[in-house]
Amino acid sequence: MGPETLEAKQKAAIEEILKAYPEKAAKNREKHLGVGSPNDENQKTCGDVRSNKKTVPGVMSQRGCAYAGSKGVVWGPVKDMIHISHGPIGCGQYSRAGRRNYYIGVTGVDTFVTMNFSTDFQENNIVFGGDKKLGIAIDEINDLFPLNNGITVQSECPIGLIGDDIGAVAKVKAKELDKTIVPVNCEGFRGVSQSLGHHIANDTVRDYVFDAKVNVNTSDVEATEYDVAIIGDYNIGGDAWSSRILLEEMGLRVVAQWSGDATLKEMALTPKVKLNLLHCYRSMNYISRHMEKEYGIPWIEYNFFGPSQTIKSLRKIAAFFDESIQAKCEEVIAKYQPMIDAVIAKYKPRLEGKQVMLFVGGLRPRHVIGAYEDLGMEVIGTGYEFAHDDDYKRTKEEIFRSTVIYDDVNEYELEAFVKKLQPDLVASGIKEKYVFQKMGLPYRQMHSWDYSGPYHGYDGFAIFAQDMDLAINSPVWAHSKAPWEKEG
Amino acid sequence: MQEVEKIVNGKDLFKRPEYQEVLANKKQFESSMLAINPDKVQEVAEWTKTWDYREKNLAREAITVNPAKACQPLGAVMVALGFEGTMPYVHGSHGCVAYFRSYFTRHFKEPTPCVSDSMTEDAAVFGGLVNMKEGLKNCAAVYKPKMIAVSTTCMAEVIGDDLMAFIIAAKEEDKGEFLPAEYPIPYAHTPSFVGSHITGYDNMMHGIMSQLTEGQKGETKQRINIIPGFETYIGSLRSVKSIVEAFGTDYIMLGDHSDQWDMPAGQYEMFQGGTKLDDAKDCINSSATISLQKYATSKTMKMVEKRWKHKGGFSNPVGLKGTDEFVMKLAELTGTEVPQKLKVERGRLVDAMQDSYPYMHGKKFAIWGDPDFLLGVVSFLLEMGAEPTHVLCHNAPNGWEDEMRALLDTSPAKDSLHVWAGKDLWAMRSLLFTEPVDFMIGNSYGKELMRDTGTPLIYIGFPIFDRHHLHRYSISGYDGALNLLTWITNKVLDQLDEDTKGIATTDYFFDLVR
User: Fold this and answer.
1) 0.80 cut: is pTM over it?
2) Residues of A with Cβ-Cβ distance to B32 under 8 angstroms
3) Above 0.95 for ipTM, yes or no?
4) Less CB within 10 Å around the terminal CB: N or C of chain B?
5) How far is residue B282 CA from its own chain's centroid?
6) Are A197 and A74 in contact (CB under 8 A)?
7) Strands B147-152, B86-91: parallel, antiparallel or unpaired by DSSP?
């Protein structure tokens, strides 16, 4: 199939899909769908799509909320702090331990990531306010979990609506207990998606970790010339660990991970690093920019999915340092190359030419493209739940061919795109997984790595290749059609 | 480094020396106590096992830790998906709907359709009427459901949106293009800060039954309505139907999601099965209504008994006695003998119970879950001579604690059996240390309790995210009780093997025949 044919097919699919909507919704959705061409200077964003706007009501968007962005993504993985879901019981329960932010620690004693702390609001808390309950909750936490190094208060929808002042409660309790207590106004109705929650959470790191005194000792760590921090890696399935190993092998010292397997001390140490390494740009560019402005720390984006991007990134990082690091970087690349060659030799013949459609959050829709292409697979559609213009601009550089771009795609659209473009693999989240598996389509969850991983770095790529092969070449898909059914 | 012939994922990868070194090096930058002072961690860990900690833990009044309940709209979504071609529609912010969908999908391994009208800051200020008007229209146009069942998130409840007025306004403005006047859009207010997911189930079921039947009252038909309640076992719905069908009576199951969350492979259709809307409209004319979950349907059943004057009432067909009562109720309502098929099924169950009783008798269990689930399964444990030492219900409504106490008082071991109403699973953790049991029965949240206390977990409940296909089975009826018996007995036997497998030390008791 030539690229023109693919592009024409993609454009026709968009046109067809828009027909199902009432006029106003069609007009809105039209702006969020497009066909991206690689490095097309004429396109403002990839496919010229609009993004970060309100979701059309009633269409089954896959988006989450600001609370999910703060509690679920940015703050939740910080392991030695306790994160209170402040409000009714549901939010904390639905978001408990689903993201696979791996960490080392004794859960319930000195680390708390997979637990659920909730103020479990009742009607009287809505009517009379919940500040008093929050204060008692903080005291009880401090009694029963004495090794916690701090507490964050993650606001659910009602908090901002009933006029509670969690900031005041946090201030009083922080002083009284000599603890870092962070009030986060990440109510779910704020903004249009998880994205605002990331931003709000980033701002609270600035205000309550950098600008305030934290209760952990950081003076025992002396800064070195080779200190870096990993920013925007949530250690899903251990991703940050399989990234960290490469940075250390090339002679750098990783002082902090944000925020997978992170601790308060690591965050507090970060303003002294020499370079911030930003993986998930969308969720943590804010704090990176702040550190650049405030502490003069440069930041660079990198991509550890797939060998092509990993090599590019390693060299980009090394270029910030002296020749000894650059030499070691080349040694690292050379060390892993035979393994990567063997992985590609094994899996490429089994995966070459297979077409993929992606729909993920704020980073992976562009960052994982290279990993698929390294295996000879072809990404023909991608989109983000909660990206902004700058993400879609960056996407232009990552696509290899005409690619249908769908921002905030909903259940109806994704299903229709898949039916029309017929990819060999769909890679998205849990909510969509079984829709496509019912159709007999191989599927991989690209938020949770489908309970596998890590996928970052060289070791992660080998797992990624193995998992894609597992999905595409499993015998189970052939069973959908019964032997008595006619061909066709 | 990976070896291409034996690529391993994180489970084994991180055990390798190069990664162990990375993790050890990381500790110098950490502030968690394990990195600083492992002895202190050990000391506090030990303290959490003590009576002192237990007393403090059980006295908590403001912080909930590791709950065993969810919020109202989750139950409302379940109700909606039990009706033919019905789209659950949640008025509020879309983050909630993303959560409900993932939660059910992780349990059932099935798609869970549900929309929201994506309310945001402006709706918080001006109300969500505009969202409702657009949302209903778009939902009807794009997904073409036969019915839309509207519930609310806490955001919409706090600002006080009026669902009835909004739905009327949406229909008026649409002028029949997508939302004709007769288009069924039942609704229920489901505030998350009142009750739990079973309250939401009750409210939505009440909403659908009362609103669809408006003006439908006619001649009473010899027919039985069955309301399953917040039932997460697909097989249970099928067992119950099979029992009712054995009586040859006409019936309507109200809220039957057994096909929706158990779709065959081959193609995807958004909606499958469910209570026919014509049946739902006519359910007011049935002669009787039986609710299988008392505490998940109290408001609905009040309407059915007081206003509709239906016979029936509650019957919880979990365990032998529960199923017997259900069967006898059906025999009474239909005026027929118990069918031979059920007599044989009962006989087989009792036969199996008499085969396996030595392994369950006297064993101590901790169990948690929804109030009606607990009444059923605890009753079954008692029928087997087991001792339900800790029975914990986080979302216990009024009256449940007394009813459970009365049930436990029928056991000879009653003085050592405890009811814990309104407590969470961190409280359970203390109890498992201070007053240990042999086995736990519960959902996936028991996994951390299993790790921390070493108590084996038997997966029965909701949600179950990390074991496959259990929800496809039944825990209701005689066949369901047989499943309970099988799962529990075999876990006891697995544990017996685990305890006796020591070579040349304990394996004389590692018997081939049990």
Assistant:
1) yes
2) 79-80, 105, 110-111, 147, 149, 263
3) yes
4) C
5) 28
6) yes
7) parallel
